[in-house]
UniProtKB/TrEMBL annotation:
This is Alkaline phosphatase family protein. InterPro entries: Alkaline_phosphatase_core_sf, Phosphodiest/P_Trfase. It comes from Neobacillus notoginsengisoli. GO terms for molecular function: hydrolase activity. PANTHER family: BIS(5'-ADENOSYL)-TRIPHOSPHATASE, ECTONUCLEOTIDE PYROPHOSPHATASE/PHOSPHODIESTERASE. Gene3D superfamilies: Alkaline Phosphatase, subunit A (3.40.720.10).
Amino acid sequence: MKLGREIETSKPIILIIVDTLMDAPLQEAIASGKAPALKFLCETGSYLPQIVAPFPTMSVNVDTTLLTGTYCNEHKIPGLVWFNKNENRLVNYGTHYRELWKLGLSQAIDDLLYNLNESHISREVSTIHEEAEMLGKATASINALVFRGHSEHYFQLPKFLSRFTKLNTKRPVLAPRIFSYGRLSKIHPSNRNQHFWQKAGVNDASSVQQFAHIINTNSLPPFSIVYLPDLDQRIHKKGRMDLIGIQKSDQQIQAILNSFGDWESVLEEVILIVMGDNGQAWVHEKRQQAVIDLRGILRNFQIMRAGKGPFHGDQIVLAVNDRSAYVYSLDLEGAPLRALAKTLYKDKRVEVIAWKDGNDIIAISAGVEGEVRFKRGGTFMDEYGQSWFIKGNGDILNIKMNENQIHYGDFPDVLARLYSSLHSHEGEFLVASARPGYEFAGEGSPVHLGGAGHGGLHAQDSLVPMIVTGTRFLPEHQRIVDLKKWILTLLH
């Protein structure tokens, strides 16, 4: 296992993202014989069990960080749900049908299919697809939410969706040269695995079907990203240690390996990377215990109703990202951020609350005394080479400081991740993260009682495994934000 060694790079790179793949259940699945493909890859490659995901730990933010090599202060996607100050509305890329219906189904689908990649992701950053194309190297994106590239494609909406929306599908999206997105944009002509009850083709079987077609037609480009979404929903329902979901994901990876003939040949022909995008933290079974009802806690403030406003008199907006939440103040005099933070602070289930104060960021934690202030620059250095000024109680963020060195605990890379979220978009807001066992709820938010959720700062939400085969050249730092640079180096 070598870092930074000279490399040879004629082999295509395949990146398989298994949504919510985590180390502990993966190890148990391998030990119990439920994951032979992943076992083979672990044994023949390098296994990195603790890759740090960005915050909030929601797929749309994670995937954008992966493709752009930046945190959300640069790529400008704050999470799955956020308040767009310029358009004076709540953006939701797809949490639950109840929330989407209230916000307007057409708007939500427009945001997911078009605005996310075409206008919300900053043009100041570039994706792996865009940079590879500039090098003359084709790329492929299979069922990934974030896909911005240089080639024009057109979505074909199914009839059932066209009836309920007023989308203009005659406009193109810019994506990689080889592009598949459910049944809306297919490579393989078959409708198998593409039906409405199969999430319109955004499922593991469809992803593998489309990618196997690329392999079987000798069309494999220098870089491909293949997204396997199914495990995420099983973990939400069954909990962190569900092994059946990993077993099913492994079967899909077996199918990809089988497309090459024999598994050993894969090691010679390609660089294969398999990784999770975020973890999930366990959630209590009982609603009264598990759910942090933000509308109830903040009932003394006038809260904007979903899809209705903001109107005159509305003081705050809630943007719930499962185990984290943005709380926006529309009235700094009547609803100052510190007052909102102090209100949340009374609930011991809220682990971290942070907001900007001039150039500083202030963080507090329910059950921990005092506050901590930090900002970029200063004399303290962390393991990623980032320098910080820190003053106050470091226990709030579970950090230890020794001889100007910062050591992170339960919140990996917490300073950069909080900084990025609080500088990710315009507005006056705070961000809150729940303790394991709990999740936030607003108006119509999904909850996962007895299962698991993500979005938070905690290590349970934030650490994912990565398997690398076909090369011994590994990323300098074990964070998702560092993978783009590494992948482009492999492509060169």
